[in-house]
Specification:
Radius of gyration: 15 Å
Strand content: 15-25%
Helix content: 25-40%
Largest sheet: 6 strands, mixed
Number of strands: 6
Distance between the termini: 40 Å
Shape: globular
Length: 162
């Protein structure tokens, strides 16, 4: 994996684990406003957004969510060639037995394909699922996947507030 790809993954992981000057307060956090704040980090019209207007709140500190999404979007934008757009999507999964449903936010860049030799690095610690500090019981997860069409997909999964 190139140095830039390693830097992108390290930047996002750093936002997840960055120490907070104040004690994180698990949510509920407003996802729509966090996505809007993240999009302010990149030029206008550089992202396609497929996020429902109304999303249920998630149990994470609002500031931590905003910083994490901003790092995801900014990193994707840096990997995306001029003229191409970053894709930001959010979906909810229904309740599952023994637990609440989940919210998944996916940020896809349009950068070069990840070389086959680098794929094991994507799934190795500490890049493979990361607990997200500031969530109830560390229940949030951040993963990085290779995009079949080229580039990377940062996936943030958060439990829904019961």
């Amino acid at each position: 994996m190139g140095d830039h790809s390693r830097h992108v993954a390290t930047t996002v992981t750093g936002a997840v684990h960055a120490p907070d000057a104040r004690a994180p307060r698990p949510g509920p956090a407003d996802v729509s406003s966090a996505v809007a704040a993240a999009l302010a980090e990149v030029p206008t019209r550089s992202a396609t957004v497929r996020v429902p207007d109304r999303l249920p709140p998630v149990p994470i500190d609002q500031g931590r969510l905003e910083r994490t999404l901003a790092a995801m979007v900014r990193s994707a934008w840096l990997r995306t060639p001029p003229g191409a757009r970053v894709l930001v999507q959010a979906t909810t999964a229904p309740e599952r037995p023994g637990g609440p449903g989940a919210l998944q936010i996916r940020v896809t860049d349009r950068g070069p394909d990840v070389a086959a030799g680098a794929r094991p690095w994507l799934h190795a610690k500490p890049r493979g699922p990361q607990d997200l500090h500031g969530t109830d019981g560390g229940a949030g997860r951040l993963t990085v996947e290779a995009n079949p069409g080229g580039g990377l997909v940062h996936v943030l999964t958060l439990p829904l507030t019961s």
